[in-house]
Amino acid sequence: MTIQNRYEFVYLFDVTNGNPNGDPDAGNMPRLDPETSKGLVTDVCLKRKIRNFVEMTEENKAGYEIYIKEKSVLNLQNKKAYEALSIVPESKKMPKDEAKAREVTAWMCKNFFDVRTFGAVMTTDVNSGQVRGPVQLAFAKSIDPIIPLEISITRMAVTTEKEAEAQFGGNRTMGRKHIVPYGLYRVHGFISAKLAEKTGFSETDLAKLWQSLTLMFEHDRAAARGEMAARKLVVFKHADALGSAPAHTLFDRVKVERVNGEKDTPANSFSDYVISVEKAGLEALGVSVEEKF
Length: 293
Known about the structure:
The protein contains nine helices and 14 strands.
């Protein structure tokens, strides 16, 4: 059954001595808001981690394929729907029969978790339509300014014999690594029950999303990312599909305050913060709140 309630959530995660989301246009330095010096992590980066977790935990399970995955060819992904429905695809066109066109898009939603969750533009050469997903994430931004560091590293090997000869057998390669010593990031999420009706996003899918947000960093370890951890997930649940309160008024109820160090200076650890949720009056608004962790 598709979800029947609208949700918003506040998600907090941190990084220690790592790069949570490098910018390829800036030498892979941690993304930064130039006006505030606060760190940024894109929605695409976070969705990637959710996709990877779902693919790992639900591998080969019907309905949990991943559409946007590493090295995938989207035309071939789209073609799966046509083959399953015994429809011959036309270049860049949906089937002329509207019922068949809807079948193609519905098949993609049913079989690909990320399509029915985040939506997808599948209007490639093998056209499977366009889906607006019920789950959306904003950019994550660090609570305080960050100071990215560039660390020199040494590899005790070279790639080619020519490099070895040039170093007279020294065989060393110098490199650089960009890190954030510490940063606590906050991101807002939105889940629409009305859009879920169109994609088939279910209560089971919702439970998988919460599990992903809880555990995805535990299975995404890499030397470049240092220590990343999920710190807090606050979920606001409305009484019905449309909801009864603006999202921003609910987000304002989640306060993240510094308890150690000076404001607008880099924090050193999660213990430098205290997180509180103002719950008074929510019941009268028709909204319940749950702190997942």
